[in-house]
Design goal:
GO cellular component, one term: cytoplasm
Catalytic activity: phosphoenolpyruvate + UDP-N-acetyl-alpha-D-glucosamine = UDP-N-acetyl-3-O-(1-carboxyvinyl)-alpha-D-glucosamine + phosphate
CATH superfamily of the largest domain: Enolpyruvate transferase domain
Protein name: UDP-N-acetylglucosamine 1-carboxyvinyltransferase
Function: Cell wall formation. Adds enolpyruvyl to UDP-N-acetylglucosamine.
Strand content: 15-25%
Bound molecules: uridine-diphosphate-N-acetylglucosamine, phosphoenolpyruvate
Strand order of the largest sheet: 21-22-1-23
Radius of gyration: 22 Å
Oligomer: single chain
Main location: cytoplasm
Number of strands: 23
CATH architecture of the largest domain: Alpha-beta prism
């Protein structure tokens, strides 16, 4: 695995950030309008899907985030011609000359993203061989890949664990299979989709994840010629086809980025219009936002989020879950706002076993947050018996003070930016490059919203 600092430096470089520390002067509300474009958790998968076709695909509404650049690099080492209009948010991906890449080349490009594992099915179909490099992504738990490997084996792939990494081959081709996921994993569901669409025969996936980003991936695959049905009770059926063509697709918006800006408005006593945000994909978030006292208005071109003013914030009890539950990627920014709600809020994290590391910095800044091993929500989760600290009790309100803090991961990083902006005094936030994995132009957006900061320490 690459180190956290390597990841941060690489990500910072990708978006032209020449320092990894930002100095914030907190205490100002964030007010104004910003735009969110395509979802990190969809765009990167749609890019991989282009590999399955025999014609150039076009993806629109693509954000300029480092994960997109990582996946572009990986596609290029596999012979895909990538043409990109960064400002216009358009990508043209031509898979006419797909070729085998060496493990070293793949490793060199794979750094900060988990997407490389999704290349397996498409590469096995196109080339009969694939490698899984060291995977990046946020360090918020063990993040095993057992579901992925087991699904690939069910299709007929042979998995060899070599000293330099994992190699896959398909000596007898890939065949449809009946696959059950012990947990509705987003990545494993995508792995099955990207492999089954061109496998011979029928695939039935039970206990599938059904996040909006997965539904948009299904849209893209259908545009390419795939036959996929999403049935009741998390069952997805895929009828394999011999060839796939191309897609032209406008990505769904990034609901995780939108929720982060909403939390920023709540935490800083501000008001932010998030252009591009839509209600349907944020339904669960909007309910919690309202219960926490937040005010929002839905418009055709976005959602306006604001602090309730004198009415003040309210404590809430949240349990993160797979869709349609409260998304795990939403909890970190929201926890920062909850430090200002009078009373006790509880967050039970049931998706990742170690997603509260970011709270250390908040406590250093004055927050009262206690972490527990017990399941403090309504349901017992997979982590309760396994000694993982995965429930947080937040007591508010507490005055937050500036501090020197280090970004631990993507969402934790954004929550640290909000914490620095709502605190009195000066905060130096280091390792900020990681935030560029999933937040397009976040410094420009912060400036637009009135944040007071300088790049550097
Ligand atoms: C790039 C991307 O889309 N990332 C998202 C994706 O991550 P990702 O696809 O990695 O997340 P998963 O849904 O696979 O992980 C959910 C849970 O399943 C477990 N698991 C997963 C695979 C496996 O083989 N074995 C296993 O045990 C994980 O450790 C975790 O506890 O979905 C997560 C859950 O919505 C989001 O937080 C991430 O932002
Ligand atoms: C956990 C996340 O992403 P990844 O799976 O890419 O690490 C995230 O977006 O919060």
């Amino acid at each position: 695995m690459t180190s956290l600092n390597q990841d941060a430096a690489r990500a910072a470089q990708f978006v032209g950030l020449n320092a990894d520390t930002i100095t914030f002067h907190g205490g100002q509300p964030l007010n104004g309008r910003i735009e969110v474009r395509g979802a990190k958790n969809f765009v990167t998968k749609a890019m991989v899907a282009s590999l399955l076709g025999d014609q150039p695909s076009v993806l629109r509404n693509v954000p300029d985030i480092s994960d997109v650049r990582v996946v572009s690099g990986l596609l290029e080492v596999h012979g895909v011609k990538v043409e990109r209009d960064v400002a216009g948010g358009e990508l043209r991906l031509d898979p006419s000359n797909v070729k085998i890449a060496h493990m070293a080349e793949i490793n060199a490009h794979a750094g900060s993203s988990r997407i490389p594992i999704l290349f397996c099915g498409p590469l096995l179909h196109q080339l009969g061989e694939a490698f899984i490099p060291d995977l990046g992504g946020c360090r918020i738990g063990d993040r095993p890949i057992d579901f992925h490997l087991s699904a690939l084996r069910s299709f007929g792939a042979v998995v060899d664990k070599l000293p330099e990494g994992i190699r896959l081959t398909a000596p007898n081709g890939l065949h449809g299979a009946k696959i059950h996921l012990d947990y509705p994993s987003v990545g494993a569901t995508e792995q099955v989709l990207l492999t089954a669409v061109r496998a011979q025969g029928m695939t039935e996936l039970t206990n599938a994840a059904i996040e909006p980003e997965i539904m948009d991936l299904i849209n893209v695959l259908q545009k390419m010629g795939a036959i996929i049905s999403v049935d009741a009770d998390r069952v997805i059926r895929i009828e394999g086809v011999d060839r796939l063509g191309a897609y032209d697709h406008f990505s769904l918006f990034d609901r995780n980025e939108a929720a982060s800006w909403a939390a920023a408005a709540l935490a800083t006593n501000g008001e932010i219009f998030v252009e591009g945000a839509k209600q349907a994909e944020m339904l669960t978030f909007l309910n919690v936002f309202r219960k926490a006292g937040g005010v929002f208005e839905i418009h055709d071109d976005g959602i306006n989020f604001k602090h309730p003013g004198e009415a003040g914030l309210k404590p809430v009890v949240i349990e993160t879950d797979v869709h349609p539950g409260f998304m795990t990627d939403w909890q970190q920014p929201l926890v920062v706002a909850l430090t200002q709600a009078p009373g006790v809020s509880i967050v039970h994290e049931t998706v990742y076993e170690q997603r509260f590391g970011f709270t250390d910095a908040l406590v250093k800044m004055g927050a009262t947050i206690e972490l527990h091993r017990e399941c403090l929500g309504g349901q017992k989760c997979r982590f309760g018996q396994r000694n993982f600290v995965h429930s947080a009790v937040i007591s508010g309100p507490t005055q937050m003070h500036g501090a020197d803090i280090e970004v631990p991961d993507l969402r934790g990083g954004f929550s640290h930016l909000i914490a620095a902006l709502m605190s009195d005094g000066v905060s130096r936030v280091s390792n900020v490059g990681i935030i560029a994995r999933g937040y397009e132009n976040f410094l420009e957006k912060l400036r637009t919203l009135g944040a007071d900061f300088t790049v550097g320490s």
